Amino acid sequence: MKEFEQLRQLAVEIAQAAGALLAERPDVFDINQKSSAVDFATQMDIAAEKLIVDRILTARPNDGIIGEEGSERASTSGITWVIDPLDGTVNYFYGIPGWNVSIAAKNSEGVVAGAVYSPTTQSLWSASLGGGATFNGKKIACNDPVALDRAMLATGFSYDLEERKSQGAMVASLLPRVRDFRRNGAAAVDLCYVAMGALDGYFEAGLKEWDLAAGGLIAQEAGAIVSGGPSSGQPVIAAGPALHAVLSREIL
Predict the structure, then answer these.
(1) pLDDT per residue over 93-131, tens digit each?
(2) pTM flag (> 0.85)
(3) First-to-last C-alpha distance (Å) of the chain
């Protein structure tokens, strides 16, 4: 639909603007602890979210907002934006590539447009519902079929240190039976890597809506199945249909 494409383009433009802001990485960080000592935000998370919210409301003043760093606004237009202004804050803090800006738009039925922008890897992914997914402007598709023993997988670990024990055990169980694992440290990019075939599958427990919204749509529009998430209480699993069925049996 034309409206979904317009939302996609707006998400792309704003994600790139926020990425440019974040690329000016400060020498000193102000740390705001969240759920634990390893879960934190910086002054740049907050500045990027402010930029994104301001740009969205300038363009679409009746839209709603859900932001990781606390921005919240009810929608009167039927569209709500789901924002992760700095996905991969730990990567950003340590100067590791792969952190990104993730912006999605949803209506009452679900996510309809999204963009993920990773300045350090010069990567821009986007999608609109029914309009397919792209990487740096080119159409992309996930890998399918892929057997478990040939699968390149990625995962992430909870900020809850106790939950990491069971997550580590799951990785230990799968590791001898797959091609390999990658730990990239940014959920949105992992989902986009599945979309473009740079990964065969990805799973992670404990994702929030803003972690999943844009990258999940991009993966789905590239042909992957994306299941689980905060509304279900189940781990997110993203992969092509054949591998998704196998991972679901292994993980759930």
Answers:
(1) 999 999 999 999 999 999 999 999 999 999 999 999 999
(2) yes
(3) 35
